[in-house]
User: Which sequence fits this backbone?
């Protein structure tokens, strides 16, 4: 039935019944886990220092502060991770077309 509790995808304003009060903070937990994993891979020395970038904060991608800067940081990290996995990947430039950059990243990931 339409509007039945717990049904997904029928109305955009309904929250699924299985989401608890901590669901709003899940993104922060994911970001902290991501940062821990990047640190294990020595991203500060290998990725950020080469591009003269600042280290990420614990909630860098969890809060939309500067979408252009965050997108470029994401692309820089994605390119570095792809290269680290053994696939040569050209570092995107800050003013490259975002659709083309994402298309290239996705294409490279599909080839794995």
Assistant:
């Amino acid at each position: 039935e339409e509007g039945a509790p717990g049904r997904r995808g029928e109305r955009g304003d309904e929250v699924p019944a299985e989401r608890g009060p901590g669901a709003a903070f899940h993104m922060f937990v994911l970001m902290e886990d991501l940062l821990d994993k990047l640190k294990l891979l020595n991203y500060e020395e290998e990725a950020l220092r080469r591009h003269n970038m600042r280290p990420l904060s614990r909630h860098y991608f969890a809060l939309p502060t500067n979408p252009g800067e965050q997108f470029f940081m994401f692309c820089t990290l994605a390119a570095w991770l792809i290269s680290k996995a053994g696939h040569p990947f050209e570092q995107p430039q800050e003013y490259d077309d975002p659709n083309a950059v994402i298309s290239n990243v996705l294409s490279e990931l599909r080839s794995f």
Summary: The chain has four helices and no strands.
